[in-house]
Specification:
The chain folds into two domains: about 210 residues, BirA Bifunctional Protein, domain 2; about 45 residues, Roll (SH3 type barrels). It has five helices and 14 strands. The strands form three sheets. It has a seven-stranded mixed β-sheet, sandwiched between helices. Strand 10 and strand 11 form a beta hairpin. It is α+β, with helices and mostly antiparallel strands. The radius of gyration is 19 Å and the shape is globular. Helix 1 runs parallel beside helix 4, helix 3 packs across helix 4 and helix 3 packs across helix 5. InterPro entries: aa-tRNA-synth_II/BPL/LPL, Biotin_CoA_COase_ligase, BPL_C, BPL_LPL_catalytic. GO terms for molecular function: biotin--[biotin carboxyl-carrier protein] ligase activity. Its EC number is 6.3.4.15. This is biotin--[biotin carboxyl-carrier protein] ligase. Keywords: Biotin, Ligase.
């Protein structure tokens, strides 16, 4: 692949045949409709973090529920605990959405990143033809060369009164020599039938709209709307013995046996006790050695 000439404008859709820019007009036509969740779709060429930008827009009253912000390149993307996430321009999908589930009790908002994981996995299965799995609480996994690799992550952050910004980063066309760490992967390396980012993004957002609507209609009850069961079915963490590293150099080891009604991972310890751990409680979740 010929590298993009730095003097060439990003607006030239054919500046990189392997990684063309997103077609914002087509995305808006496909997603922003009367009665739909998505109210606005913006694409920026480069930013530090779409999550930070959308949180700021919400605070300034410049974005409402259903706002979608997408970046062609993200230079300071963040995962949980401010872990960095970066990739070459137009090699992935980096986007954030603003949700305001005011009719859902705040105690149930912890399901939003898990709900997004289910939506992302469903959307990618349909649009990319690639099997994915979810690592609790926020990683999207693919299989590359028989090994599980992280191809994406999800981060939810509060946005003012009654709002949540959920960010998603997915490695789409990264080649092996571009991976940030050996344990990373991409849709392309996992054998995706398509790495065209426009239908991939539409597929994920339509799936997110569907699941969010179900969950909201059920008052955030993940069991009643089928979310809890669907998440468990696609969660690679369940059935494995893991080590949950907690603040204060504490750790809990046990078999991951369930995801409870609050979205917490339930570990069955050697002492026979079932201990739930929330996403906000852990520093790392690793396989037990």
């Amino acid at each position: 692949m010929t590298p993009r000439d730095a003097s060439e404008p990003y607006g030239n859709r054919w500046s990189d045949l392997d990684r063309p820019p997103l077609n914002v007009g087509a995305l808006r036509r496909g997603l922003v409709r009367e009665g739909a969740l998505w109210s606005r779709v913006d694409v920026v060429q480069r930013t530090g973090s779409t999550n930070s930008d959308l949180v700021a827009r919400a605070a300034a009253g410049e974005a409402g529920e259903g706002a979608v912000l997408v970046a062609e390149e993200q230079t300071a993307g963040r995962g949980r605990l401010d872990r960095q996430w970066s990739a070459p321009a137009r090699s992935g999908l980096f986007f954030s959405v603003l949700l305001t589930p005011r009719e859902v009790p705040v105690a149930r908002w912890g399901w939003l990143p898990l709900l997004t994981g289910v939506a992302v996995a469903t959307g990618l299965s349909r649009a990319a033809g690639v099997d994915t799995a979810l690592k609790w609480p926020n990683d999207v996994l693919v299989t590359v060369g028989g090994a599980e690799r992280k191809a994406g992550g999800i981060l939810a952050e509060g946005a003012g009164e009654g709002g949540v910004v959920v960010g998603v980063g997915i490695n789409v066309s990264l080649r092996a020599d571009e991976l940030p760490v050996p344990t990373a992967g991409s849709l392309a390396l996992a054998g995706a039938v398509s790495t065209d980012r426009d239908p991939l993004l539409r597929g994920m957002l339509r799936s997110l709209e569907e699941w969010y609507g179900r969950w909201r209609a059920a008052g955030g009850d993940a069991g009643a709307c089928g979310l809890q069961e669907t998440y468990a079915a696609g969660c690679a963490t369940l059935g494995r013995t893991v080590r949950a590293e907690l603040p204060g150099d504490r750790a809990l080891v046990g078999e991951a046996v369930a995801v409870d009604g609050d979205g917490r991972l339930v570990l069955a310890t050697e002492s026979g006790v079932r201990e739930p751990v929330g996403a906000g409680d852990i520093v790392h979740l690793r396989p037990a050695v």
